[in-house]
């Protein structure tokens, strides 16, 4: 059975919130997952500890579990691949994403 790292949507209308989950590939997006390994909040917010005033999207992820599931053979979706590349677990698929990551690390 093929496993996927994917996002399961929660939250209200116009205020999405996602759980990062491991699920079987042929199940629905909001069905019960095998494991929840993190959260993702795509709405940019100000960081209370950053005085520059930049907006940040919140990604909380259990990195050891994510590496384990990828090592076992779980396939990330395209969005999850992008998030995992931001965290540093996977290499970016596209050069544009690599350029964005390099720009953020330099600043």
Describe the structure.
This protein has 3 helices and 5 strands; from the N terminus they run E-E-E-E-H-E-H-H. The protein is 30% helix and 38% strand. It has one domain (3-106): S16 Ribosomal Protein, Chain: A (2-Layer Sandwich), CATH 3.30.1320. The protein is of the alpha+beta class and 107 residues long. The model has no long low-confidence stretch (mean pLDDT 84). The radius of gyration is 15 Å and the shape is globular. It holds the Pfam family Ribosomal_S16.
Briefly say what this structure is.
This protein is α+β, with helices and mostly antiparallel strands. The chain contains 3 helices and 5 strands; from the N terminus they run ββββαβαα. The chain has one domain (3-106): 2-Layer Sandwich (S16 Ribosomal Protein, Chain: A).
């Amino acid at each position: 059975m093929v496993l996927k790292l994917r996002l399961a949507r929660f939250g209200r209308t116009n205020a999405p919130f996602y759980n990062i989950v491991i699920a079987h590939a042929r199940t629905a997006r909001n069905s019960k997952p095998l494991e929840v390994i993190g959260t993702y909040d795509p709405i940019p917010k100000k960081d209370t500890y950053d005085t520059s005033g930049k907006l940040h999207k919140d990604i909380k992820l259990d990195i050891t579990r994510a590496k384990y599931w990828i090592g076992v053979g779980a396939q990330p979706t395209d969005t999850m691949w992008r998030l995992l590349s931001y965290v540093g677990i996977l290499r970016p698929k596209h050069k544009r994403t690599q350029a964005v990551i390099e720009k953020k690390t330099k600043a």
